[in-house]
Structures are given as structure tokens and as C-alpha cells.
């Protein structure tokens, strides 16, 4: 692939970034509050569209994240910007934390469902009723995985918000092109 310096991300990287951002946000909004309580009350998750959509979008986030990671190994060179030392390290730390959360959220969802014996319900009527490999694992009882999942869901939204504020700061105050590198090109007239 082309490894020449550039001031913009490639189109596929933009698509993956913004698709992930939108899907994570919608999944967060549709995240059913009190999921465990609903299941203990005997509610079938397949009867709740918010649950089905939340879990389906969560699987889409996992797929997009794996695809993004693979694309990072193949894509053209990412733009490089001259940043002060603290900005460089804080940006790197936030990116790493977002990547960790993008993987940790689906993992904790599986842990919550499997350890509590709840089914995974997806669009199209796909349903996995039991996950014995999780339920019988030693880590299943180490935490209330539903609470961990909820905490991490809140954390990714806060961190994504901070990420967005930093990008706007770069655009409005520093005027250094960081935000423009992640936006689609404007069509010239």
C-alpha cells in the first residue's frame, strides 16, 4: 500500500470510523436499562426490540472493530500531525482506551449473557439460548458482568465525547487539520 505522508485518512478508514461511531451511539441509546431484572422477571428478550437491536448492533460493533483492526495493517499511511508531547501522548492514550473498550464491550456482553444464562437475541430471529463455555468458566463468577458492561458503555460514550471535543478544539483553536483529516472531502464546485 501507499505509505507516503498524507493529511487525510483514506475513504474506507473514514467509513469504518464514522460507522463505528454511529453504531456505538445507537447501541448505547437502545441499551435496555435493567436488562437483568427484566430477564429475572421472565421477559423473553426476543419480544423486546430494544434488546434485539442493542445486541445486534453490539455484534456489528465487534465486526466493524475487527475489520478496522485488519484494515489498519493494510491501509495507506495515516496522517501525521505535529503535536506537543502531552497532546501526542494523551491522544495515543485515548485511542488505545477506545480500542480496548470497543473489544471489551462485546466481551463483557457475552460474559453477562453467558454467566446469567440469558440468550443472545439478534435481528432475523437468530438466538443463542445457552453459552455453557462461559457459564462454566472460572471468570463467570468474578464480577456482575452486566454492571461491568454498563459501566464500560458509559465510559466509551464519555471517552468518545472527550475525543470529539479534542477534535473540535484542534479545528477551532489550533487550526491544525486534525479534524479535517477524519472528515469526508468536500466536493469542489
Automatic annotation (TrEMBL):
Locate the Cytochrome b561 bacterial/Ni-hydrogenase domain: which residues? 8-184
Localization, per the record, is: Cell membrane
Give the membrane topology: Multi-pass membrane protein
What is the required cofactor set for this protein?
heme b
Per the UniProt record, which residue ranges are transmembrane?
Answer: 12-31, 51-72, 93-113, 155-183
Which keywords label this protein?
Cell membrane, Electron transport, Heme, Iron, Membrane, Metal-binding, Transmembrane, Transmembrane helix, Transport
Query: Which Pfam families did the record assign?
Result: Ni_hydr_CYTB
SUPFAM superfamilies linked: Transmembrane di-heme cytochromes
InterPro entries, per the entry: Cyt_b561_bac/Ni-Hgenase (IPR011577), Cytochrome_b561_oxidase (IPR052168), Di-haem_cyt_TM (IPR016174)
The family line of this record is: Belongs to the cytochrome b561 family.
Identify this protein by name. Cytochrome b/b6 domain-containing protein
